[in-house]
Amino acid sequence: MSISRTVNITCPGCGTKQDVRLYDAINVNTDPELKDALMQNMLNRIQCRGCDLNFRVDKPLMYNDPKLGILIHWVPETDEMGREEILDEFEESLERMNASMPADQKAPSVRLVLTRVELVELIFMLEKGLNQRVVEYVKYSIFTRNPEKADPKTHRLLLNVEDSTDEEFCFVLQNVENQELGQILRYGRGAYDSMIELYEENADEFLEMFPGPLISARELLLEDEAFDA
Predict the structure, then answer these.
(1) In terms of DSSP bridges, do strands 155-159 and 111-113 run parallel, antiparallel, or are they unpaired?
(2) Which of 16, 70, 87, 218 is buried most deeply by CB count within 10 Å?
(3) Residue-wise pLDDT tens digits, 27-63
(4) Which three-class secondary structure state does DSSP give residue 84?
(5) Cis status, amide bond into 12, omega within 30 of 0
(6) Minimum mean pLDDT among 15-24, 32-41, 161-170, 219-228: which range?
(7) Of 145, 192, 140, nearest to 164 (Cα)?
(8) If pLDDT is split at 50, 70 and 90, which confidence band does 92 have?
């Protein structure tokens, strides 16, 4: 089931306070309209009754598709909670969940993302049956081979599943600061398929590189850069 609650929100435009309904978790099997709202950027979106400003409230959200076995937790970075704090708290939550599970049951696998656009990207990716770790390995390769075009400090690299074909993947650069989409980079599907074969033969390299739950080439590169600084 989906979970929502009433929250008192202050409009960032005029300061008007109002009670609104926000979702903490959505089950897309029982409430498919909520998935549509998420994909159309309408979930947890508010219309201010004071100034008519339309704005989205970014807050932690659990996305659950039981039919496909997809469970993703979106936890936005804020000034109060950065990446490291999110990861620490998430790991503690997983430990508590694992400890509460019956001995004969395995805890569900939960993915973690930090932005809405990465949540949408991952949903499309998993629905198409793509291997997230291999896709992020491809992104890592694109980042490292095209530093003049794809700088992880300033851009995200997103897989556009809808515009990809059987012959090539379509990646698009997104400016981190203004969220604008820019240059398109294409990657041969054959190279991905070869990496899938390597993954199936020996996944250790991919698992070591992206142990999860936050599987992200950009985050890995930023972490490596911070470590080397």
Answers:
(1) unpaired
(2) 218
(3) 999 999 999 999 999 999 999 999 999 999 999 999 9
(4) helix
(5) no
(6) 219-228
(7) 192
(8) confident
Q: Give the three-state DSSP class for 225.
A: helix
CB 30, CB 2: distance < 8 Å: yes
Residue 93 structure tokens: 């939550």
What is the Cα 63 distance to its own chain's centre? Answer: 10
* Sheet strands side by side (includes 181-188): 155-159, 168-175, 181-188
In the predicted structure, residue 229 carries a pLDDT above the cut 60 = no
Burial 80-111 (b: 16+ CB within 10 A, else e): eeeeeebbeebeeebeeeeeeeeeeeeeeebb
Q: Angle between the 132-145 and 217-228 helix axes, to the nearest 10 degrees?
A: 50
Comparing CA positions, the residue from 20, 31, 125, 118 lying closest to residue 75 is: 118
